[in-house]
Amino acid sequence: MLSFEQTRSRPAINFLPTAAVFHLIFPVLNQQTLGRPAEFSGVGLHSGNRVNMKILPAPPNSGIRFRRVDLDDKPEIEARVENVAETNRSTTLARGNVKVHTVEHVLAALAGYGIDNAVIELDSNEPPIGDGSSREFCKTIQAAGIVPQVEKRETYAPSEPIELESGDTVMTLFPDENFKITCTSADKHGRFTQFFSVEITPKTWEQELSHARTFCFFEEIEQLIKNNLIKGGGLENAIVIRDDAVLTTEPLRYPEEFVRHKMLDIVGDLSLVGRPIRGHLIAVKPGHATNCEFAKLIVEQMKKPLRAARVFGPPPEPKSEDKRNAALEQLQQSAELDTEQVMQILPHRYPFLLVDGVQRMEGNKITAFKNVTINEPYFQGHFPGHPIMPGVLQLEAIAQAAGILMLRQVENVGQIAYFIAAEEVKWRKPVLPGDVLIIEVELTKVRGKLGKARGVCKVGDDIVSEAEIAFMLRPELE
User: Phi then psi for 165, rounded to 5 degrees?
Assistant: First the structure.
């Protein structure tokens, strides 16, 4: 056990020869990927599972994605903030039932070195924790080499300051020519308050942040264990603070190692924006939940269309393309859609548009509705004198709701969800004129443009039909 004062003055450890780091010195103008596959093995911090990880080169404009090679069809999850599912002590990404936990340290290593495109293959549900920092990932990446690509890199500078205040946490991003983080951290009792500020470049990332290890307070350990976390945790991959003592297998690597690790987490979490940021971030008491919420605010501003101010005369009627863009923006930002917005998103029209609106969307789930009126054209023949909504149209409503949920992913904009299969279909009760059909859908599996979903249709509290469906996304115009 070392007292805090005994551990304060150790310098950061450098592991790269200067001659091998040309890219650390000069600005990165083009996209980058790895020169060859990189491999690293270990245990997951929270799962405790043994895991083998490979980081593979990827083509330009493909971004960063995780691939679970231990599962059927090797499903992939894009490293985008839209895919964040959990933020309890780490950042978890999910698509359908497929999850990858504790992604922030490896994402920070890729973002810190300016790597835009890579595939991270895992044979378990969590990258290896290494020593609790990004040091081992950095060694792995440097051994593989970093190579430029032809396509130019697109960065993002905020058009105006972005602010977030949540409890004790305050985060503000100001426009800037480069990416800089100024951070203050402390626990809820104000202990071990630390401050650090640095402009993030590949060189400063490696020297000033990448070695900072994760940490927790001793009194938190029991609760973490009860929550089924830190199964792979130990002093070899985490620092434990007990009263005024620091429990660690080695002296602190930086005088401000705790706040620097918070900044490491910020670099990883904000990489989920999908583009390098040019701005000065000032953060007080950040955490994974607020980091990801802040990333969503950046994406929200990024997607706002630029509207020219009109001084004379009334604004013209929006073009159909403008309406569609507004509806897609609403889809990204809101959990509700009205009928007009649904019609801008789905290509279906009368008599085959079977979703009138969306009540809520959360993660991989959507709740939509269809008002069933006596004016529905199918009631003329199904059946005369005894009108009943056909069950196959309820299946189509499930498919359309699933399509809306898939289109919430930015990369799927401009696609149509084609209904290709149905299993475990059950029709339980008739749907009659005057009923409001509630359509509840959960995505259970996503593989590229193919998806599976579980859908349930209800009238009131009664289930009227249910099914497991499969669908394929294809471009609207071939």
Answer: -130, 120
Residue in 23, 46, 280, 288 annotated catalytic: 288
What is the spatial distance between Cα 75 and Cα 478, in angstroms, rounded to a whole number?
A: 26
| Backbone phi, psi, residue 429, to 5° | -140, 150
Superfamily for domain range 27-301 = lpxc deacetylase, domain 1 (3.30.230.20)
| 3-state class (DSSP) for residue 465 | strand
Rounded distance, CA 460 to CA 381, Å?
26
Cβ atoms within 10 Å, residue 256: 19
Give the whole-angstrom CA distance, residue 417 versus residue 470. 10
Token look-up 């497929």 returns 98
Marked catalytic residue, from 189, 211, 382, 386 = 382
The number of CA neighbours under 13 Å toward the Cβ of 458 is: 10
Active-site residue flag, 288: yes
Contact, 77 vs 363, CB < 8 A?
Answer: no
pTM: 0.63
Q: Which of 268, 275, 270 is nearest to 295 (CA)?
A: 270
| The one-letter amino acid at 165 | E
- Is 348 in the active site? no
Strands 92-95 and 84-86: antiparallel
Phi-psi region at 314: left, alpha or beta (left = phi > 0; alpha = psi -120 to 50): beta
The fold for domain 322-475 equals Thiol Ester Dehydrase; Chain A (3.10.129)
Render pLDDT for 264-306 as a digit per residue (tens, 0 to 9).
Answer: 999 999 999 999 999 999 999 999 999 999 999 999 898 874 4
